Amino acid sequence: MDFVSLYFYVFLAAVLVGYYLMPLRFRWIMLLAGSLSYFWLATESFRGMIVFLGIIAVTWILGIWMEHVSFVEPAGGGKYLRRAALAVSLVLALVPLFAAKYRGILSFFETILHRRHSGMLISIGLSFFTMQIIAYLVDIWHGKVKAQRNLFKYALFISFFPQILQGPIPRYEQLEPQLIEGHRFDEEKFVKGFMLIIWGFFLKLMIADKAGVVVDTIFRGYQMYRGCYVLVGGVLYSIQLYADFLACVTLAQGTALLFGIRLAENFRHPYFSSSIKEFWGRWHISLSSWLKDYVYIPLGGNRKGTLRKYLNLCITFAVSGLWHGNGLKYVFWGLVHAGYQIAGNLTWGIRDWLYHLIGLDEGRRLRLYMERTVTFLLVMLAWIMFRAESFRKGASMIKSLFTVYNPWIFFDDSLFSLGLEWKEWGILILAILILISVSTAQERGIVIRDKILRQPLVFRWGLYLAAIAVIMVFGTYGYGFDAADFIYGNF
């Protein structure tokens, strides 16, 4: 039951009615009931539900214990007790994620013990709420937040259903007060949430799932589709992944806003970045900031010299790769991005001198576009490895980019044999151009939702209904294939 399911919106309508009928101070209880019900319906597993509730209960106790230990005097071994408490808490919080992602290690122990395990019982949101729990525990350990004494309020923070599926990864101090305080019905927020949901459907059905048809064809037939086909697959996968993940986050934000709750922004037009460092300040912001605050800075950040900074950068991006999956390709993808940043730092002076030599000093528009293009191409190369079925297949595809010459595919009918007819290609390209136009306007500080809200009622609802009709007719459903699962749900 994901965000593009009819059942989800029937469920959402029921929770919304219940929420706004409840007395203000008890509305958080309706959110909790809705969130746990969503998890139950999404997993369809009694054992999975028990494990999820067990994780919540154990980490709630760990949070209170962490706060208690933080008041122990440093003298007499108090410092070591605090560190031990943090280590134990983090290990226990990571066990479910470790068990789910690294089944190969479990298989090794199965062979030794001659026993079979029944499989991981939790799938949805595990990577996201594990990081949410770790951030909560570490912030308690540092004294940034107070441990939540009410188990049910803590359970709501962990299980809040709009963001449990794929984030964004919330911080306790930002989300918890909004969940508990209760919100009166606000027509403006409600309508803005509705607009976000429409935009999320546009991104998912008009861009991500359409691009995914071509991407799947090329990556599954990587031995047949070489050279410029890989370039097409890489560019479209970069767009697909962005549109898909942005769609999920936008739908989560829109759903939460129907309750008057604001979720943090998770993207800020990352493909407008002019460097890899800037890209990671715009892409999956909640993950990037989490890695910075809970991995990079604790390792020493940039405070212990240049070589140590580069090592910390490599470790941080390796952790990012491992978070996404247990294959070599994921670690390689992470280390490639670390290498990009290190190379960018080392060559900055030379690049600036070369730009100056050809008359493109800092601030020139042409230089900005060139930097954005190079950054996108570097990110795209890494995405090819990320999407490929294995490290070997990804390396083979990237190699063919530079060794196979077939540019004529852009001028004959070759692209129309990849799963989309010319009309569908036209719809996909038009949708991508709309995304670029909207992103450009937002980059300039224009809030499109506010502009729409200032229009007459008839115009606004005409626009909403027209957008819904276009998505239903020309989106993925309109051509007879089901909406694919959200990509980041697999991580």
Structure description:
The protein has helices at residues 6-21, 27-43, 46-69, 78-101, 103-113, 126-142, 151-159, 161-164, 172-181, 187-220, 228-258, 276-282, 285-296, 306-324, 328-357, 365-387, 391-403, 422-443, 448-453, 457-474. The chain is mostly helical. α3 (46-69) runs antiparallel to α4 and α14 (306-324) crosses α15 (328-357). The longest helix is centred in the middle third of the chain and has 34 residues, at 187-220. Residues 104-120 and 478-484 have low confidence and may be disordered.
Query: Gap between N and C termini, in Å?
Result: 17 Å
User: How would you sum up the global shape?
Assistant: globular
Number of strands: 0
Instruction: Output the structural class.
Output: mainly alpha
The low-confidence runs, each spanning 5 or more residues with pLDDT under 50, are: 104-120, 478-484
Alpha carbon gyration radius: 24 Å
Q: Average pLDDT value?
A: 87
What's the SSE pattern? HHHHHHHHHHHHHHHHHHHH
Helical residue percent band: over 70%
Biggest sheet character: none
